[in-house]
Specification:
This protein is of the alpha+beta class and 158 residues long. It is built from seven helices and four strands; from the N terminus they run H-H-H-H-E-H-H-E-E-E-H. Strands 1-2-3-4 form a four-stranded antiparallel β-sheet, sandwiched between helices.
Length: 158
């Protein structure tokens, strides 16, 4: 993470924060959540992803807690942050996270800005038909293919 990352609920800085920084903060939230969940870390270890890779690749987990840390949608700041996350397609219009229930691996460009991500769901819910893998790409031109550790694993276990 870069030093300029601000909080997703910081009123003073959010209006000047770039979309890349907002995405970075989102993936920082996911990374922190994964580090707080020993059962998910153990699941990754069982799939061949060790703690060093989790830290190096900045792997996280979307535990559906984002709405608890985002400002209320009815406030100006909440509308701004949620609107920008929706414009980047990281948050659905319903307010649900695009990566809900996924282990998430972001990919960074040469400037250290999040430019894409891969999410893999390990637990299937019988009541919902949702994709096992979720890919997200920021608008732009990328000059090298993305190499996601999770995509290899998710494709194998799908």
């Amino acid at each position: 993470m870069t030093a300029h990352a601000n909080s997703l609920n910081d009123t003073r800085s959010m209006s000047t924060t770039s979309d890349g920084q907002i995405a970075e903060q989102l993936f920082q939230h996911y990374h922190q959540k994964l580090l707080e969940m020993p059962q998910v870390l153990e699941l990754l270890r069982n799939q061949g992803i060790d703690d060093a890779q989790v830290l190096q690749k900045y792997i996280g987990y979307s535990d559906r807690s984002l709405n608890k840390v985002l400002p209320c949608a009815r406030t100006a700041l909440g509308g701004l942050v949620r609107g920008r996350l929706q414009a980047m397609q990281l948050l659905r219009r319903s307010g649900h996270e695009a990566f809900a229930g996924c282990v998430v691996e972001p990919c960074f460009d040469l400037n250290g800005v999040v430019c894409s991500a891969c999410g893999v769901r390990f637990r299937r819910q019988a009541s919902r038909a949702r994709p096992r893998m979720v890919f997200w790409y920021r608008a732009g031109i990328y000059y090298a293919p993305f190499d996601f550790l999770l995509a290899k694993m998710g494709g194998h276990y799908a």
